[in-house]
Request: fold
Amino acid sequence: MAILNSTDGSNVFFTDEFGTHSVPLGAVLLAALQDVEANAPNNGDTLVFNAAAKMWLNSPSSGGGVAPLVLTPITAAGAVNPSVAANYIITPASAIALTLSAPVAGLPSAGGDDGKIITIQTNTPGTATLTTSGLFDSGFSASVNLASFAAFAGALIVIMAYQARWKVRSLNGVTMS
Reply:
């Protein structure tokens, strides 16, 4: 979809596979479009609907945040980089131990890691553990140190950095203790 006009009080003209359309643009819609990224859409920006996020995002060709999912394989035990948002896939068939240190508090614009999301998923039946020093906020108990992945492919944890801690967003086949 290409935004051809995005001024409050006018219409948004956009194109898609069905042709060119005109939709009245009120303040609410304009605010929603401006929330796509820190940079509001400009005339000519291309937006792509991300079904998983349930939101419109600027496409990579417009310098935006929609990009193909890149998987980073974890092939051996070791430390997961806390300052890089990534989608990791654990590939060893045997047990693997991972560690994760604290993220840096603060917004990325100020050198922090707040909002960065790390996903770790198993691809083999080997067990895996992810250890951190009481930094998991899981909603189960205080001071959670360990995420233990079940011995099945597909075990998953999704965590988000916020104020030097890891907020657990999703678990599948992972036990927190």
